[in-house]
Amino acid sequence: MISSNSTVVENDNLVSRSISTKSLQEQQHKEMVDQTPLFKDASHLLNGLDTYIVEAEDGHPISLYGIHFTSSNTDSSIDINVDIDADADAKHIHIDGGKEENNTIDNANVTKRRRPILMLHGRTWSSVPVYHLLGGNQYDRGISHHSRSLMEALYNAGLQPYCMDFRGFGGTPRDSTNYVIPNRCVMDIECVLKYITNKHNHDDGTNMNDSIHYLPALMGWSQGALVAQLLAQKSPHLISKLILYGSIYDPLVSYPRQPLYVNNNRAFDSNIGDGDGDGDGDGDGGASRNTKMIENTFNGAIEDFTVEGSIPPAAAIEFAEAALSSDPIKAQWHYLCQFNNCDPARVHVPTLVVAGDQDPYAPLRVQSELFTNLGRGADRTWSIISDADHAVHLLDGGRERFLNVVKSFVDNGKKGGNAACM
Question: In the chain, N or C terminus with fewer CB closer than 10 Å?
Fold first, then answer.
């Protein structure tokens, strides 16, 4: 009996230490996120969003953003700046200072039955200015024109939208490499997709074996569409549908590989690095690498708006200011040769290819090549939005049409083995 009691006490201590370690790690993650430009200097851009931290495979914190989700969170994430409503059935997370509109909040069961969609940003800017421009109650800042938040628009259309930041963008801290690596982005997305799926799993209340599992749809914009395509090729079981929006895929473009030998002929893995995690091939843990920081510019933020009359000057300026606030320093992509693995024929989930007809980065010739070569056996849809360029979802003439196309595609069509509801 004494031995047994001693074992119990030891196990209790182990559990206590485990909980303490987890709490410490969560606090460290929150402190890292709080120091990002988005949370430190531009938290007003998060107004109206639910904000989560999802732990990546290597333990790095990834910032995920949702909207009006009323169900309790899973253990794989922690919440940022949460307020608890004692009268609610579950925890509702929102950024401090956000205005909660009671008439837009569903109960937990209704929310869970909304089809989730995860959106990925492009090469330069965080998901928050890209997908939540002028959202929440930012009207209080004296802005006269209306919200251009795709997060709000998708939610109002009946979906449950999420967006995330890759490492070094917006609210996700940089890692030790200081680089954005495509394959690492894919692994981070896998963790986020599993987290979202877990949030949307629910029992129908009649039989414990009759659970309905909602797999998220995945949308990538611009260079983010390449990352989304890599995910669909590698882990199609994690998504219900794929949306390649303004994809810069081009079969004629081949990104150069990294040198096989550098610094005293030391070889390293071009997929990750040389083993020290800094991606420079010298095995020094990054001590000798002096990464040059490049500032983003106002002109760079508004260069995607090219069609005259498609967006008011005030809205374009608001986007540029929001983008520069969230990402003042340009994130540096590395190992772009990993995008050479993008092969439309290896995509076997229902896929929507959508772009503006005047998108300079996604010409119709290349979009046709992408669409035509998608894998057989799954629904495919190609939508061309007229009088629109790269940022269709922000344009006066394109936003509603883009929303309708995405909403219809996510809700309808052949479900197959990767159904949104299986």
Answer: N
